[in-house]
Amino acid sequence: MKTLSTAPVLTTERLILRGPERDDLPAFTRFMTSAPSMAAQGETVTAEQAWYGFLTGIGHWQWHGFGFFTVVLQQTGQPVGRVGLIKHSGWPDIELAWHLFEGAEGKGYATEAATAVKRWAAQDLGLDRLHSYIDTKNTRSQAVARRLGAITDGTRAPHEPEAEVWVYAMESP
């Protein structure tokens, strides 16, 4: 399948991170419209909104040179989520973000994939700082951010009042 972006391919011990492909849309739509993790945060959307979100992800690669990677298992090729960098219009900083599909949580995939993205951001993009905007009630994502070396002082994201700003110091390439 042809990738829809300029994304490089990153590999980890268990995962392949690649650019979005057309065949990724159904899993993404299921996640965005019905995943318990999205419902718990009140963030589910319609199928049409998911489609626009998917295209926005592709557009990130064209506009910024970064975006969400589709995360797939090396052994099976099964998509398990998306991890990457985003910076929407009006956002103060680049965000390191992750979304794991239902059934993929609790296996360390987010930490493994985000570590690879963080390394790529420092080495290939020359970024010296990243942020995550994490809902104050999302303790699982907060734990991932801590494992990745992020800290927070409780400051709220200006574009998302329920989210704390988590800051990553980047290692030099």
Strand pairing plus helix content: what structural class?
alpha+beta
- Taking the alpha carbons of the first and last residues, their distance comes to 32 Å
Helix content: 25-40%
Number of helices: 5
Topology pattern, helix = H, strand = E: EEHHHEEEHEHEE
Biggest sheet details: 5 strands, antiparallel
Strand order of the main beta sheet, please? 1-2-3-4-5
- C-alpha-based Rg, rounded: 15 Å
Uncertain regions: pLDDT < 50 for 5+ in a row?
A: none
Quote the average pLDDT.
Answer: 92
Proportion of residues in β-strands: 25-35%
Protein architecture, described:
- This protein has 173 residues and is an alpha+beta fold.
- The chain has helices at residues 25-34, 36-40, 47-64, 109-123, 139-147, and strands spanning 10-11, 15-18, 68-73, 79-86, 95-100, 129-135, 156-157, 160-169.
- It has a 5-stranded antiparallel beta sheet, sandwiched between helices. A 3-stranded antiparallel beta sheet has the order 6-8-7, with helices on one face.
- Helix 1 packs across helix 3.
- It starts with 9 loop residues before the first strand and ends with a strand.
- 34% of the residues are buried.
